[in-house]
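Lecture notes, part 5. Sequence design as translation. It can be helpful to think of inverse folding as translation between two languages: the language of shapes and the language of residues. The source text, in structure tokens, appears below.
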């Protein structure tokens, strides 16, 4: 099994591309979904957020007030880094655990949907291929304003908090332009899926896994025999 890193910018259409891969039978490990799970009330990441940001970022039921927290971090890079330090370790641990489960289920490859993969994520070095979902700046801005009901200033602030899509594209192995029609994007995803499906990259990881498993059982056998 090998790892495909799927990323993009806010409102670039990454989730749409992820859903197209899912429709083709690809296992998707969604960092955003995991990020919501690790900050549920009472969990370690939630406690760290409350410790650093105070209970004013909580709603009456104890869940995070995401709009309020978003306004704090998108206008202050130091606060954004602080929030990431509270959540990213837990997110990455869960993603690694899900990758291991996919490996033992025998999947050819797995798609890791990580919004900030190229914005300093430690997961980047583990990716065999990186796919960036791109759209032009005007489309990205209009989509974000519509989807999040944001003002021009708020939308621009959120976009500027991330590495520009033009820069992310330079770091990609594959760039999917999602500025146009969905049918065009879907066809591009299907072509990439076929390319990944025909790759032999997964055998490298499987060979390493087989060696490690063999060594593990060899050590266990030696230990058991020494006790007899």
């Amino acid at each position: 099994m090998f790892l495909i890193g799927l990323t993009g910018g806010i409102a670039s259409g990454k989730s749409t591309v992820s859903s197209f891969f899912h429709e083709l039978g690809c296992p998707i490990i969604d960092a955003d979904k995991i990020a919501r799970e690790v900050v549920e009330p009472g969990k370690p990441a939630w406690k760290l957020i409350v410790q650093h940001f105070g209970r004013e970022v909580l709603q009456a039921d104890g869940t995070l007030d995401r709009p309020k927290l978003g306004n704090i971090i998108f206008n202050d890079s130091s606060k954004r880094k602080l929030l990431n330090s509270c959540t990213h370790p837990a997110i990455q641990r869960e993603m690694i655990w899900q990758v291991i489960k996919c490996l033992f289920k025998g999947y050819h490859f797995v798609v890791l949907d990580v919004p900030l993969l190229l914005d300093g994520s430690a997961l980047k070095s583990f990716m065999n291929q990186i796919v960036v979902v791109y759209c032009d700046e005007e489309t990205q801005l209009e989509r974000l304003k519509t989807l999040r009901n944001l003002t021009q200033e708020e939308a621009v602030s959120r976009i500027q908090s991330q590495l520009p899509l033009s820069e992310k594209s330079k770091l990609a192995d594959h760039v999917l332009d999602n500025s146009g029609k969905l049918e065009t994007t879907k066809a591009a995803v299907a072509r990439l899926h076929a390319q990944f499906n025909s790759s032999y990259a997964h055998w490298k990881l499987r060979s390493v896994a087989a060696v490690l498993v063999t060594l593990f059982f060899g050590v266990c056998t030696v230990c058991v025999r020494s006790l007899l």
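The translated text above is only one of many valid answers, since several sequences can fold into similar shapes. The CA atoms of residues 156 and 187 lie 30 Å apart.
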